[in-house]
Amino acid sequence: MLTRDFIEDSLYNPHYGYFSKQVVIFSPGDPFDFNSMRDELEFHQILGQRYTSFEDKLDEQSPNDNRQLWHTPTELFRPYYGEAIARYLVTNYKLTHHPYHDLIVYELGAGNGTLMLNILDYIRDLHPDVYERTKYKIIEISPSLASLQTSLLNQPSASPHASHVEIINRSIFAWDTYVPSPCYMLALEVFDNFPHDAIRYDPFTEEPLQGTVLIDSAGDFYEFYVPHLDPVAARFLRVRNAACTQPFNHPLRSPRFLRNLKSRLPFAPNLTLPEYIPTRLMQFFDILYHSFPAHQLLTSDFHSLPDPIPGFNAPVVQTRHQRRVVPVTTPFVQQGYFDILFPTDFAVMEDMYRVLTRKLTRVMSQEDFLKRWAFVDETRTRSGENPLLSWYRNASVMTTV
């Protein structure tokens, strides 16, 4: 199968996929009182204590050395992070669509449902007129997470929101409904888990070859590259070359004579390092254009990641064992037990989004976005340090304008 199909199977297979069966999202309990903390170091210590307590309680119910536990800014900084998103939504809704249209929000991959709850609480409490016209729709591929979100809406604190919420348990890539109404599409830390294709190039001819993986009867994986690109990967390369307005990082960016020289050295590989291209992201933009023509996108993701595997735009591949993160050097590992997350090249993504959806955009750091839309005094420690702003400095935000 193609590399992107293998990654999709590993992460999203309904029977054994990482997000379908393995993942557990950390919930810290009560919101952190940042103003009472000495500094970020104390926040880190308290977070570690809550992490341990959270996992201890899970182990009391069902011990698991391979529990795939991770956290999100929504959970760590609730409700402040969700309220910042809510302020952005309400402000832009009132400027562009109120009172002629309802406030329709789609959240792609809602995790525990915390962001939904924080946004709806904020709108209900501070903008009751907007709340009456708010429709919040979650598109969730994971049956277990969709069930968790439904359970949240049955709790007393969230049940008043139930009439405003619809949980759609399907993949966005299986979407077949036309939505003509103006709407907001939230994709927060979603693109990093979109499947990518692997492309390597002949250093002499610059011909691209597409990555494929063979699984034998013993369950071993063998990666190889073929010179015939499938239509999706071929289209991505064409669109990227036509859309990008500035140079981007890829294996053929260095001078050709240097590549040829390196390739002639003893024991030099006959192909470049792999480049991982976000073909699924391109298909997502197609869905936005054809099915949500009046959408406005708000997306946040990592523009860089520590310790990726070798390659260009390469992912981090890791699992957890006995509460420790275990990184590996290949995405071709046992399906369902490893997170495979990619950095997002926001310059390339922005140019391709503009071409494919015919909309304008703005890109900024997540820190700058939160400085504008969050009440940052609520997350400032006594030392003046602010974890909300500093903990995700490797993340950026893109919005439709």
Can you describe this structure?
By secondary structure, the protein is of the alpha/beta class. Helix content is 36%, strand content 21%. The protein contains 14 helices and 16 strands. The protein has a seven-stranded mixed beta sheet, with helices on both faces. Strands 9-8-7-10 form a four-stranded antiparallel beta sheet. Strands 13-12-14 form a three-stranded antiparallel beta sheet, with no helix packed on it. Strand 1 (23-25), helix 3 and strand 2 form a beta-alpha-beta unit. Helix 5 (80-96) packs across helix 6 and helix 11 runs parallel beside helix 12. The longest helix is centred in the first third of the chain and has 22 residues, at 40-61. The two termini are 38 Å apart.
Give short descriptive properties of this protein:
four-stranded antiparallel beta sheet; 401 residues; alpha/beta; 14 helices; seven-stranded mixed beta sheet; 21% strand; globular
What does this entry show, briefly?
The chain is of the alpha/beta class and 401 residues long. It contains 14 helices and 16 strands.
- What does the main sheet amount to? 7 strands, mixed
Strand percentage, roughly? 15-25%
Q: If you compute it from the alpha carbons, what radius of gyration comes out, rounded to the nearest whole angstrom?
A: 22 Å
Number of helices: 14
Overall geometry: globular
Which strand order spans the largest sheet, edge to edge or round the barrel? Answer: 5-4-3-6-11-16-15
Distance between the termini: 38 Å
* Global mean pLDDT: 95
Order of helices and strands: HHEHEHHEHHEHEEEEEHHEHEEEEHEHHE
**Percent range of helical residues:** 25-40%
Q: Which oligomeric state applies? A: single chain
